[in-house]
Design brief:
alpha+beta, SH3 type barrels, Fumarylacetoacetate hydrolase, domain 2, six-stranded mixed sheet, binds calcium ion
Amino acid sequence: MKLNATHDPARRSWVESANAPGCAFPIQNLPWGVFSQGGGAARVGVAIGDQILDVTALEAEGLVEPAPGGRVFGSGVLNPFMALGPAIWSATRAQIADLLDAAGGARDLPLLAQADVAMHLPIFVRSFTDFYASREHATNVGAMFRGPENALPPNWLHIPIGYNGRASTVVASGTPVRRPLGQLKSAGDALPRLGPSEKMDFELELGAVIGTGSVMGRPVSTAEAWEMIFGFVLLNDWSARDVQVWEYQPLGPFQSKAFATTIGPWVVTREALEPFRVAPPAREVDLLPYLAEGTHRNLDLHLEVDLARGGQAARTVARTNARHLYYSAAQQVAHHTISGCAMEVGDLIGSGTISGPSLDSCGSLLELTENGKRGDFLQDGDRVMFRGWCEGGYRLGFGPCEGVIMPAPEAP
Ligand code: CA
């Protein structure tokens, strides 16, 4: 996609808070979310400065009309709008940017303070697939679980490794996360036991939101896959490491990842992120042609993890960047369809934990604490918050993606 007027760094909004240096939501961002006020119905909105533009109301007033003669913003999720495809996403973004542009002067638009609304899941998640695209993370985890000589599985440099996760437990930022029960078996135990996970962890990931589907039986190219992506969200793929290490062979993670996945409230569009595309890490071996990319689709996206423990102030425990990912979201989606597997509107594609080359750039406590040797896993009451932003003349923020750990339930 070529850059257009919506990416112009000189553009300003008449919503003054959007022009403040470092604001997460300048007029160049315009991320999509779903909100409600005072217990009312869920509505679709776009963030601008410290406000939300009520797009459900804009559509009702006829100020935007992405589906002439019909409504797509009345259902409280982005799926009907996403299904209209990239040309309509782009035209609507341009229209909203024009409505908010300082050059046109202040207008009487339905704006609400973000502080006064509750945010919800922005999409109906049709399916959730989680990949494993950070070479550093795969190497660190492999070394711990299988030894340094078997750290990177033999297929890893050829296949974007993934597994089919659970859409039913994808939750909005701020939803408390209950510590899971699971089968636990330590190295010295003869038999497994049932108990609350003692190694509960976060995984710092980026989620790609599929906006248009593909046809069963027809693989898509990486270029087509990129066009199918509506946008990206921060994603916490909560994990129970002790459950995982006992259950994961031979079919991969199951209950260790199924209890909760938190996504951030704002979907930052692929179009808004276009100026921040960068080259992927160097390839050690050539990829098969169906995974090749003629262009760069990694994102220069700064990421941070804050941890607040026992009511104490939050401290930043990891700083990294999505540019370290070995496989782009487009490569993951292309691989996902190579068998003929269909993609659907509202599918969520997790990148895999994003770790960088240094210890403090690792995206999980498994790595940051070296499997508990240099610190604790998550405790009840801990609050984990992810932040993400691109920087380049202006800042594109994602808004916080957070959750608090609740005690485990009683065993049935
Ligand atoms: Ca994961």
